[in-house]
C-alpha cells in the first residue's frame, strides 16, 4: 500500500487544520491507520489511530480533546482534524498503516505506539503553529 499525506500548513495558535492521507490499492480496509509526528530534534511520536472499520479510536494524551481521527473506507482515506492548535503541535505529520488488529473485539484495546510496528508510511506534511 502507498500513502500520500497532505493538508499541512502555517496556522496561528488556536486555529485548525485538516490533514488527509490517501492510500492506493484495494486493501485499505485491512489496515489499521495511525498518525505520527516528528518535531526537529525529537523522535517520531504517536498521535492518533483508528482501527479496522473505525471500530476503535485512540489518542495520545497531548492531543486528546483537540484532534479527531476518522477514516472513509470508500475513499481509501484517513483524516486528522486538528483544532485548538498550539505551537508545540509544530511538526511533520505522517500517516501510517499497520496490520495490527487492535480495537477488534477480543484483541488489544490500544494501538501499537511504535513506528516500527507500521508497515507503510506517507511522505509527511509540515504543520507549523505560530504563537
The radius of gyration computed from the alpha-carbon positions, rounded to a whole number of angstroms, is: 14 Å
Distance between the termini: 37 Å
Unreliable residue runs: none
How does the major sheet shape up?
A: 7 strands, mixed
Residue share in β-strands: over 45%
Helices and strands, in order, run as EEEEEEEEEEE
What does this structure look like?
- The protein is mainly beta and 131 residues long.
- It has strands at residues 3-6, 9-12, 17-23, 32-38, 45-50, 57-59, 67-72, 77-82, 91-98, 120-121, 125-130.
- The strands form 2 sheets. Strands 2, 4, 5, 6, 9, 10 and 11 form a 7-stranded mixed sheet that branches. The chain has a 4-stranded antiparallel sheet with strand order 1-3-8-7, with no helix packed on it.
In brief, what are we looking at here?
The chain is mainly beta and 131 residues long.
Task: Spell out the key features of this protein.
131 residues; mainly beta; seven-stranded mixed beta sheet; globular; 45% strand
Reconstruct the topology from this structure.
Blueprint: E1 3-6, E2 9-12, E3 17-23, E4 32-38, E5 45-50, E6 57-59, E7 67-72, E8 77-82, E9 91-98, E10 120-121, E11 125-130
Parallel strand pairs: 2-11
Antiparallel strand pairs: 1-3, 3-8, 4-5, 4-9, 5-6, 7-8, 9-10, 9-11
Amino acid at each position: 500500500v502507498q500513502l500520500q499525506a497532505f493538508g499541512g500548513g502555517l496556522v496561528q495558535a488556536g486555529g485548525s487544520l485538516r490533514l488527509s492521507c490517501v492510500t492506493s490499492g484495494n486493501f485499505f480496509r485491512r489496515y489499521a491507520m495511525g498518525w505520527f509526528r516528528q518535531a526537529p530534534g525529537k523522535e517520531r511520536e504517536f498521535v492518533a489511530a483508528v482501527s479496522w472499520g473505525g471500530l476503535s479510536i485512540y489518542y495520545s494524551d497531548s492531543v486528546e480533546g483537540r484532534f479527531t481521527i476518522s477514516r472513509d473506507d470508500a475513499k481509501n482515506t484517513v483524516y486528522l482534524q486538528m483544532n485548538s492548535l498550539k505551537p508545540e503541535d509544530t511538526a511533520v505529520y505522517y500517516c501510517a498503516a499497520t496490520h495490527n488488529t487492535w480495537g477488534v473485539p477480543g484483541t488489544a484495546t490500544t494501538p501499537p505506539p511504535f513506528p516500527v510496528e507500521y508497515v507503510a508510511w506517507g511522505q509527511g506534511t509540515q504543520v507549523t503553529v505560530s504563537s
